[in-house]
Structure formats: structure tokens, C-alpha cells
Specification:
The structure is a homodimer of 127-residue chains. The first copy, chain A, has 127 residues and is of the alpha+beta class. The first copy, chain A, has helices at residues 8-18, 26-32, 39-51; strands at 24-25, 55-59, 65-69, 85-88, 94-96, 110-121. Strand 6 (110-121) of chain A pairs antiparallel with strand 6 (110-121) of chain B, so a sheet runs across the interface. The structure holds a DNA duplex (30 and 30 nucleotides).
DNA sequence: AAATTAAAGCAACTGTGTTGCGATATAATA
DNA sequence: TATTATATCGCAACACAGTTGCTTTAATTT
């Protein structure tokens, strides 16, 4: 762990996430890259990038998997990106929101991980 | 809307949710009821019950669909159950938490719906 | 450059959820 | 109660995201 090969697939994906502000659907990546690599390759490379703490994944309302770049020094052991994900009903984009969500104390429960998924209308579409 | 037929499937499902505190996986329902009804029937009856505001659904970390009984006078138009769902890593149960989660204001964003999914260890397993 | 190790490609598969449609049950009406 | 209308059921087939096994190819190591 800690070592990730700079394969063609990894380079392409890294580049893609570098230039993409919003999150990307796994299936969209497969579609966009179908001429450059096999879908198995896409899924496996995404897995590796996530293991390395370079990107993180989450599941949308419909059960589809999204990926977005990590910004908070995540490692293979721990993802620090516990921010909400926001899906705009208009432009359909999904974005990471740079805000903290505080979960109220729940008696006797040990909280391990929190995923917040918000839908609504984003700032861009709200003008 | 507002009228739901008391079919065999609906009765069985209602009874099941009445006696079940935690949420139930759709696939588990299909499995549990496979001798009594077809899986298509299960999915369609669940749809109807959700439309009527009797149960609500959400998606777990793995993309699987969960259903749980509504407790806050939900209607077909609006589900008021905006509580977190908590999955225990030990007993694997998923429960609705009766707490409010406040999402911080996000400039220029219109919030429509919020889904919070928490994983950890529940009170029952924490003793 | 040769050997080692990891990633890529392909095809076939898994599993959840959906759809179309004829058969059947429920409710409305006569 | 018998008849008609309408919604649900069951079945088989399908859609589709994601996975697996295995062989080939590419990236590192020595």
C-alpha cells in the first residue's frame, strides 16, 4: 500500500478527476472511456485510487456509484472526507459540499462513518 | 391516491413491518416471502406502500434498497421521515434514528431532501 | 535485458430490480 | 348475487451495474 502504479488507466483517471469539479458516476466513466479501456479496467483502477485515498466513492439515491477527488489528506486507512454530497435536480451534477455536518449524540451508539446525501438546486442553477 | 387495496401481499407486508422495529432489505423480503408471493409482487407492493406514505425507502452503502415503516404522518406527497438511518456493523441491523440532523446553511442552494446514513455499533451490541 | 509482478482485456457471470402481458383477484355497479 | 370494471399477481424474459476467472500484456525490479 502507498504505492500506486502509474499505468495508462490511472493516468487518464487522475487527469480526469483533476479537471472535474463535480463527482462522476462510475457508469459515466465507463461510457466516456469505452474507446480507451475496458470497463473492468475502469472499475479496478477506481478501486485502487480509492484504496490509496486519492478519490472517494459514495452511493446515490438510485444506488449508483459516484466518485470524487479527495481533498483532505485521506489515506488508505482512513477517509477524512465526511462532507455532504449534493445532487442538483436541474443540472444533475453531484458535488462535494465543503461544510461540516454534525450528527447529534446518539446514546450508546458508536459512530463510525456518516454519509450525507442532499438533493436540491445548486447555486449555479439558482440564478 | 389515498386508497390502497388490502390485497394479500399488502396485508402480509403491513403485518411484517408492524412487527419489525428495524428496516428490512428488499431482497430479504423477497427471500422471506418467496413461498407466498412472486418477487415482482413484493417490489410492486412495496412501491405502492411507499407511495401511500406508509413505508419509506433508502439506499444503503452497497446500493441495496431498505424499507422501514413511517412514523411521522407521511403522505403520498411528502415524506416527513428525515431521520438518519443507522447500520450496526455487528448485528447488521439497520434502524431509523429518532433524532434531527441539521444541515448547515449552504449559500444559494435550495435543499430539497436529505438522506443521512450512519454506520457504527448500536446500543444493543455496545454492552 | 531478463525476470518478476501487477494491471489490462475479454467473456461470461451475479444479483437486484424492472417490464410486458395474460390470468386472477378485488371492488364497484347493477 | 351476478356482472362488469379495474387493479394486482405470476411468470418469464429482460436491463444493467458491477464482479470474477483467466490469459495476455505492460510496468517495475534485479
Amino acid at each position: 500500500m502507498g504505492i500506486i502504479r502509474k499505468t495508462k488507466a490511472v493516468k487518464i483517471l487522475l487527469d480526469l478527476f483533476e479537471n472535474e469539479f463535480s463527482a462522476i458516476l462510475a457508469v459515466d466513466l465507463v461510457e466516456r472511456l469505452k474507446n480507451e479501456m475496458n470497463k473492468t479496467t475502469v472499475y479496478r483502477a477506481l478501486d485502487r485510487l480509492e484504496d490509496e485515498g486519492i478519490i472517494h466513492s459514495f452511493v446515490g439515491k438510485n444506488g449508483l456509484k459516484w466518485y470524487a477527488k479527495c481533498k483532505n489528506n485521506c489515506t488508505s486507512d482512513h477517509h477524512n472526507d465526511v462532507h455532504p454530497h449534493f445532487e442538483c435536480k436541474k443540472c444533475k451534477k453531484v458535488m462535494c459540499l465543503p461544510v461540516e455536518v454534525t450528527i447529534p449524540n446518539i446514546p450508546n451508539h458508536t459512530i463510525d462513518n456518516t454519509a450525507v446525501f442532499i438533493t436540491g438546486i445548486c447555486d449555479n442553477c439558482n440564478d
